[in-house]
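Thread: "does anyone have the structure for this chain?"

Original post by V.I.:
We have the sequence but no experimental structure in hand. Need at least a predicted one for the grant figures.
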Amino acid sequence: MITTRDNKVIEFIEEFRVANTSTICELFYPSLRVAQIRLKKMTELQELKRHRYYYTNEYIYYKKRNNQLRHDLILTNFYRELNRISKVIRFDKEFDKIKGIRPDGFIVYSVNGLNYIAFVEVEISKKGLDLEKYKRLYLGCEYKEHLPVFPLIIIITNNKIKEKIPFGIISLKTDLSDIAKIIS
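Reply from O.Q.:
Generated one for you, tokens below.
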């Protein structure tokens, strides 16, 4: 039988596309063992699919397999890590409210009573992220129709960011070992 909590896990995976056992456990269940039992049950009932992820040797869960599995898993892990160090007020995956840009995520989070907004980009290819769309958005001031201030840009990548830009960027490694940069 699927529980209310299990349904929340399924909804989370539908939104984020993929999550590993440890993320699901941390966000939804009181212990790893309970998470493993419930996830196995959801897999048996064909609510979720799973396979072992070769990077971590941990099960990952999804509804439909896609070509951006690693990309989506990094974004899901970012959400988990952000929840550890701040209060996440809002997280939209693939935010498309502003013409001309479509970041991987849009977040509103709070640290020590201060609220922050940010676009999130995961860049794991060697070509690097094209920041021109954000420069145009910043200079054109079109964001003011939707947002009170220009958001931070959080880029999760192992590539170096070489461009000089007139707005705030926080670059994080794909393993998220430097997530504390967000609150400093």
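V.I.: this helps a lot. The chain has a mean pLDDT of 91.
O.Q.: and The CA atoms of residues 5 and 28 lie 7 Å apart.
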